Amino acid sequence: MKASLVARLLLLGLLLAFLIRPMMFAPLFAPMTLPGAAAIYTQTSLLSLTLSHLALVAAATTAATIVSVGLAILVTRPFGAEFLPLSRSIANVGQTFPPVAVLALSVPVFGFGPVPTLIALFLYGLLPIFENTLTGLTNLPDDVVEAARGAGMTERQRLIGVEFPLALPVVLAGIRLSAVISLATATIGSTVAAKTLGEVIIAGLQANNIAFVLQGGLVVAAIALLTHDGFVSLERYLARRTGRTA
Q1: Do 185 and 233 form a contact (C-beta atoms < 8 A)?
Q2: pTM value?
């Protein structure tokens, strides 16, 4: 078994142990707290916050993937090429507005809770997926595409059976980037009452408790690292199957 895989399994085991039995780690965090302060955040279950955090990121990334991949497919078809500038502008919207500004503009309309955070993460996740899908679909091997045309495949058959499967490793790289960015960005959702791991970090800042800040930050970092590695493994597997490098 490769050392990197063993390291990732150990990280996953530590993460699960901390989320399920956080008090086991209290001696590690106790030196970082002020006298009499709690060493472990217990106002809300860390496991519950983590699941809520992941659900928010998964929902936003899924929505961003559907919209971005749909737009990229549209503009790479002959009838949709003229919409490329408009689609690129839509995908760029999330990058031009800081997530904090999106939250500030969304709260008066949707109120406090997860919806403003979901909108911010959705907008922020559009561009990487759109650009990667566009790159994947416009950099296909010419001989493979010509062979598909020569075999009499319709445009829809080529897209589903040849072009998208070949582009999939590149598309997944965009989804990976979007998901990892969203995992970190979602922490700001706690400023508008969304249930995320940002709640632990904010509680630590308010109470001058470094242990709380570290707990929130380390859990987010561990999940981001495991998510990144999971996507990379999947991209490499698909790239090998299609004879392309990820």
Answers
A1: no
A2: 0.90
DSSP 27-50: HHHGGGS-TT--SS--SS-HHHHH
Structure tokens that stand for 58 in this block: 């998964």
Q: Which residue do the tokens 């530590």 mark? A: 14
Beta-carbon contacts of residue 8 (< 8 Å; ≥ 6 apart): 225, 226, 229
Burial class (CB in 10 A: 0-12, 13-18, 19+), 36: exposed
**Cβ–Cβ under 8 Å, residues 209 and 191:** no
Cα 134 to Cα 84, 96, 194, 217: the distances in Å are 10, 20, 33, 33
- How does DSSP assign 117-173, residue by residue? HHHHHHHHHHHHHHHHHHHHHHS--HHHHHHHHHTT--HHHHIIIIIHHHHHHHHHH
DSSP string across 190-219: GGGT--STHHHHHHHHHTT-HHHHHHHHHH
CA-atom Rg of the chain in angstroms? 21
* Separation between Cα atoms, residue 51 and residue 168, nearest integer Å: 27
Classify 64 as helix, strand or coil.
Answer: helix
Cα separations (Å) of 118 from 52, 70, 106, 194?
Answer: 12, 19, 10, 9
- The tens digit of pLDDT for each residue in 160-195 reads 989 999 999 999 999 999 999 999 999 999 999 899
